[in-house]
């Protein structure tokens, strides 16, 4: 246990060091071997770092509470992705070192190198029930406690977020309508679900808060001291913030690096292959807050969702080619040439290969499942006849089909495909009983408050020198956002929605 915790602390420390190097612009790609996987991960890190910079400036410029909540949510997602990518980069580097140091035993069999196929995992119909007090929900008494809530979901380095939902006592369930699909998961996947909340009653700073604070302090401190304080906060001439100058020793207030709302972890859970079922199921939550927290919500301690998986062996062709099938025609056994396709729990046999491409009904279908037995036979080696038998049990009776490969090499290829297929089914278990349906998620829509008010980026990108008034919801000085940041925010909204 000590070694495991120590290793975890070392990994976190290395990731933190990598992040600092990225921030300072000193991250050197030469530290890692230039493999395609390394390059791809590095590009993703660079992209998320740029997105994080944009989210920070977006958050600092927000004057609307709803916009600030969306920006803070984006910042949290970017940070999570950066840490996930850096951890993966570190893991890949350590794997490369271990691979060079480790020597494979001479007696290792082919099964030692066999890996299960990858697949897609989808979670949808996410529901989190709430348990309000009778006086709050039925009698509508007490303060209207309101929170902004969203979920962060992760499988490996794939991280997605749900839409943000405003929650108060008028809701009995927190509902996230849109499904999320993870494209590259193995049967050992661990789906982490984290629920984040931010109390709407929290007095978090927005873009124009420092000026309001300066006005209040200047009136209470007096005219001369107040002028120096306002100059300090505005970053004017002679201010230590702007150029390190003197100015008579003005009062300095700590300025947060990223002002604005802060999300807190409300609850979390972890799902795996055993939780996959093509139906609506309930999962336990681990609650990490209490009633004293401003972001607290009365959770039941459970979460409902539909978790399904599609292994590639169930929805893609694993092997295809011509073989002869032994069929009874009248009183004689004849060999009929068929184009066979191994996919899912069936071996589809077509008379022509074009029929497989056009999805025509196959001429014959043989079941392939965990109970199927396949054996290679060589009845006549002199005539180079290489066949296999496929046996299934239907009720109390066994049915065997004989197939003849066109060469010894083809027979080996088919046998290897079958063994891999059986291995995939043994690893993905119930996901291979039948093909589970995964619906393609609809395109992500901008949040309701942004679609009504316009996104912050579009408000900043309005043509002309005029600055929106406070009644329009945004206070920005001329040239507050550079062309580079405008382009970055444009990319951010394009990628998000």
Q: Could you characterize the architecture of this molecule?
A:
Keywords: Coiled coil. Residues 316-423 form the PH domain. InterPro entries: AHD, Cytokinesis/Rho-signaling, HR1_rho-bd, PH-like_dom_sf, PH_domain. Residues 22-98 form the REM-1 domain. This protein has three domains: 2-96 and 449-465 and 481-496, no CATH class; 118-204 and 260-313, Immunoglobulin-like, CATH 2.60.40; 316-432, Pleckstrin-homology domain (PH domain)/Phosphotyrosine-binding domain (PTB) (PH-domain like), CATH 2.30.29.30. The protein has helices at residues 2-24, 36-61, 65-101, 134-137, 209-221, 223-234, 240-243, 312-315, 353-357, 408-428, 448-453, 456-460, 483-496, and strands at 119-129, 147-155, 158-161, 165-167, 173-176, 180-185, 191-199, 264-271, 280-284, 286-287, 302-311, 319-329, 332-343, 346-350, 364-367, 373-380, 385-394, 397-405. The strands form three sheets. Strands 15-14-13-12-18-17-16 form a seven-stranded antiparallel beta sheet. Residues 1-15, 21-33, 106-111, 209-222, 228-256 and 448-482 have low confidence and may be disordered. Helices cover 35% and strands 26% of the residues. By secondary structure, the protein is an alpha+beta fold.
